[in-house]
Design a protein that fits this description.
Layout lengths: L13 H14 L5 E2 L11 H12 L12 H13 L10 E4 L2 H12 L5 E6 L4 H9 L2 E6 L10 H5 L6 E7 L11 H13 L3 E5 L24 E6 L12 E4 L2 H14 L5 H12 L3 H22 L14 E2 L10 H12 L1 E2 L1 E2 L11 E4 L4 H19 L1
Helix pairs in contact: 2-9, 3-9, 4-5, 4-8, 10-12, 11-12
């Protein structure tokens, strides 16, 4: 019995592979510090949980429209408006079970087999995986430490041609924590307009920008009609397990995304959607406190990494990942990441999990308590001493 050949194009997401290994070590009695998965030690704010419970008791457990409840679509539009990220009508908002589902739908709706999709490398591993699954050709644009982990306009132009149909932009950036400033965005927009590209602007970490301000690409001239802005409640509201995200896009594109969701997942459970309304329109104090805590944790962790001989780390401006360079160590980043898990009890991801341009790096999520981060730094330092002889 044979399955479809295209299944070979889908890669396993490395964070969940390492998480499974780490959990198995824990079952064997090992103490593991989890820096591999993009999750936090904060629980979902209580008022959001209480809203979901109230909606369950009220019977919000049935099918609803695939595009999402009107209340949540209106709340998402208000969320973007409140943050200065564009004016959208509810019919331009599509609700999905996490941002990943909408990423999948955008690629499947946006390109035909043989077309080219430009995406960031290093970058979220699902980009390349789904591009290949769609039958399109992935074209990596480098996001390099030497460029402060930014896509440069020249690198982008070198990779765009008449076969390019879709451009994926991610900022603040996973895994590097880099971001894009207004001048960078204008240059990207110029290329997108010139080549008439659809743009997927992955902005799920927009609320986690530690310096400066976030500008949504869709607000630039010529971009509103060609941009799908991807957002998620996972990071901003500590709702990773709820699986709730949304996309803002022109009606013509929103309708196609809805069609794909209708044929795959039907709809997001309504009690979860109503909890999302409470998250977006209710008190933002818990979210603000989380973001402030992430900044403090970033400063502590990155400073500690830079004190370890053989490790250097740029300060990430957004997201909750450090992306240290370990090229000075006598073993590769892949080997060091394995050593940290097996010998030091620190789960991380090698840069190679995110593409071809980050072999000297390791991704570490710092969304954990200061006590955990301090313990991780001690273990990492000891590991460096051990491998350095």
């Amino acid at each position: 019995m044979e399955l479809a050949a295209r299944m070979g194009e889908l890669k396993k997401e490395s964070a969940f592979v390492v998480l499974a290994k780490a959990r198995e070590l824990e079952r064997q009695g090992r103490d593991i510090i989890h820096l591999e998965i993009g999750d936090t030690d904060f629980d979902t704010p209580r008022h959001i949980v209480e809203e979901a419970y109230a909606q369950l008791l009220a019977g919000q457990t049935h099918y609803v429209a695939s595009a999402g409840l009107p209340e949540l679509r209106e709340a998402c539009a208000e969320f973007l408006r409140r943050d200065g990220r564009g004016e959208y009508r509810p019919e331009e908002i599509v609700i999905g079970p996490g941002g990943k589902s909408l990423l999948f739908c955008t690629i499947m709706a946006g390109v035909d087999p043989g077309a080219e999709v430009v995406y960031p490398d290093p970058g979220f591993g699902v980009y390349e995986s789904v591009i290949r699954f769609s039958g399109a050709r992935p074209v990596a644009v480098p996001v390099l430490e030497a460029n402060d982990f930014k896509v440069t306009a020249q690198d982008l132009r070198d990779r765009v041609n008449d076969r390019t149909r879709l451009l994926i932009v991610n900022y603040p950036h996973n895994p590097t924590g880099g971001t894009l400033e207004l001048g960078d965005l204008y240059q990207i927009a110029q290329v997108a307009v010139e080549y008439d590209l659809i743009v997927l602007s992955d902005e799920v970490y927009a609320s986690m920008l530690f310096e400066g301000t976030h500008t949504s690409l869709a607000t630039l001239p010529g971009m509103r009609e060609r941009t799908i802005t991807l957002e998620s409640l996972s990071k901003t509201y500590a709702m990773t397990g709820w699986r709730l995200g949304f996309a803002a896009a022109p009606v013509s594109i929103a309708g196609e995304l809805t069609q794909l969701l209708s044929n795959s997942v039907s709809c997001v459970p309504p009690f979860i959607q109503m909890a999302g309304v409470r998250a977006l329109l209710g008190s933002q104090e818990d979210s603000r406190e989380m973001m402030a805590a992430f900044k403090e944790r970033r400063d502590l962790f990155v400073s500690g990494l830079n004190e370890i001989p053989g490790i250097s780390c740029l300060t990430p401006r957004g997201a909750f990942y450090a992306f240290p360079n370990v090229a000075a160590l006598p073993i590769t980043a892949d080997e060091f990441s394995d050593y940290l898990l097996e010998e030091a009890g620190v789960a991380t991801l090698p840069g190679s999990a995110f593409g071809a341009h980050s072999d000297d790096h390791i991704r570490m999520c710092f969304a954990h308590s200061t006590q955990k981060l301090e313990a991780a730094l001690e273990r990492i330092s000891s590991a460096v001493e051990s491998v350095s002889g």
